[in-house]
Amino acid sequence: MTCFTTCCKVLVLWNTVLVVLVAVIAGAWTKELAIFREGTPGAQWVNWIGEFGCGAAHIERPTSLTELQAAVKRHSSVRVAATGHSFNPFACPADSSGAVVDVRGFRELEVIKLPDGRHAVSAQAGITMGQLQNLILAQGLTLRVPPGNSAYTLGGCLATGCHNLGQGHAEDLLSITFVLHDGSVREVLRGDSDFNAAAVSLGRLGVILNATLEVLPYRALHWSSEELPMPAELPWETLQEMASKQTSQETIGNKLVFYFASKVFMVEHWTATGRVTTVGPSEPLEPYVNRQPFRLGQGTFSEFLARARKGVFSLVPLWMLQRVQAPAEHAFRSLHSSAEMAKLRQALGWQHSPESRGDGADRPKGNQWTWAGWLDEVVNLFMGLRHVEVIFPLHPREQAIKCFDVVFAHQHLAWWRLNIRTMPSDEFFVSSTHSPASNRTTFLRVDFVAPGGLLDIDSGEASLTEQLHRHCPGWRKHWGKGLWKTSSDEKWGDAAAFLEVVRRWDPNSKFQPQDSPAWLSP
Asked: What is the largest CA-CA distance in the chain?
């Protein structure tokens, strides 16, 4: 009895300590988020997982066009930010005394019926992709490609060439409006001479204010997958089939997913299943709810968490990390693929991309997209997960295989998984999948998902970059993700044409970022 009583006291004490600890952490987090979000003097801009900050740069949070124009004219160095989901220091101005302009106050949206019967959506840059999709779903419409993450903003997606299911959102762009360096407003239409620079601009031309995209009548997407044993060599025929299905529009998107520690890979396809029931004009619509509080704030706790994540992975030996890789993969696959978790996500509204998972409702509704990958976001935040995405042409085959040799030699970086998607080229000057109209091609997008601390070790991102330099001519990187440091021989697209537009639009380099490839500096 004495032992039982003692054990109970210890258990109660432990639970009390745990509750107090959670309360202290939650309190610190809440306070630091308030410092960041309310613009307390001295707060600095940080990206959402605290991977980089902008130092002494001012944070401007305009809510009207007049305020935005005044903020742009007030500072000699300006960059734009919103939810801060970039893994590169896009948000930081070149001059540390400049300003980061937070455009999340611009979230208005309007559905437009075009003369030929098609529909378009005109939305401001600060609206999140999840909110945009929710609002048009409620009107029986959908983006051609459902967003890959509902926390990204429309402006950030367009500026960095955001994509999902192997298709870029900028492909549906009809027009885009900017606030320029002198506060003036300029709209660029598809077909205008500067459109290919404006569609994917990296924030170099001005502050994106508004964009108009073509949208489609809502239709469900069917998601299918096949799990296979890990192949002895690259499944080249499968990649060819994926590219062929996408080119012929037999599928909306395709993906190979490698789980190296588990020794399995999956082939995934998304197919449009046609029109579904539309919402009647008299039906009440469920309002959009943004349940995405997950980001680092400003202060001691946030700094400690960011440093601790990096420190743990720098101290743990690689062999030990590899031992943990298998259970990590298993947990990830279970969370994303099990029927039980799918039901739980639907019941609790933790829908990350319901259409992309085959979980989309038969009837569109206003709150179908609710939480920005709730579970993913928590794991991302506390482990500092980063995506490193490398891109290279599918052909010639011999060259692509050399690129894959480098990729698979770094499979220890695919701690969660390795994704491979096919994606057709586009004509946007600095898009990571740019190719002239006379030479359309198919690209392979290879996406590593791993804790940032793991990518920072000697055999991590730096090693991957070095080996790609040597053995993978023509490789590229995704602007919003890792591998930012570049040299003069890595350029792609039509940098000369892009910089010519930059010089005309931004003659004093007001929108130059703090860190930029040499070949993108005018």
From this structure: 85
The pLDDT score that the predictor gives to residue 42 is 65
Could you read off the pLDDT of 371-424 as tens digits, one per residue?
Answer: 334 555 666 666 777 778 889 999 899 999 999 999 999 988 887 788 898 888
Helix (H) or strand (E) holding 485: none
How does pLDDT run across 109-167, given as a tens digit for each residue? 999 988 888 899 999 999 988 888 878 877 778 888 878 777 789 999 999 888 887 78
424-483 pLDDT, tens digit per residue, is 899 999 998 999 888 888 999 998 877 777 787 888 888 888 898 889 888 888 765 554
Q: Which two tokens stand for residue 357?
A: 């998972």
The answer for residues whose C-beta is within 8 angstroms of residue 233's C-beta and 6 or more apart is: none
Report d(CA 173, CA 125) in Å as an integer: 13
Instruction: Please give the Cα distance from 125 to 108 (Å, whole number).
Output: 9
In terms of pTM, does the model score above 0.70?
yes
- In what order do the strands lie in the sheet containing 476-477? 219-229, 264-275, 253-259, 417-424, 442-451, 385-393, 476-477
Whole-angstrom distance, CA of residue 152 vs CA of residue 164: 12
Mention the CATH class of domain 109-218+497-520: alpha beta
- CATH fit for domain 2-102, picks 3.40.50.150, 3.20.20.10, 3.10.310.10, 3.30.43.10: 3.30.43.10
At residue 320's C-alpha, the angle toward residues 314 and 325, to 5°, is: 100
Asked whether the beta carbons of 514 and 94 are under 8 A apart, the reply is yes
As a whole number of angstroms, the distance between CA 36 and CA 340 comes to 37
**Domain extents for the chain?**
2-102, 109-218+497-520
Q: With H, G, I as helix, E, B as strand and everything else as coil, classify residue 493.
A: coil
Q: What is the three-state SS of 202-267? A: CCCCCEEEEEEEEEEECEEEEEEEEEEECCCCCCHHHHHHHHHHHHCCCCCEEEEEEECCCCEEEE
Separation CA 254–CA 267 (nearest Å): 8
> What are the Cα distances from residue 368, in Å, to 36, 58, 298, 490, 519?
29, 36, 32, 41, 42
Report which secondary-structure segment, H or E, holds 448.
strand 442-451
Q: Which residues contact 179 (CB under 8 A, 6 or more apart)?
A: 65, 68, 69, 72, 185, 206, 207, 209
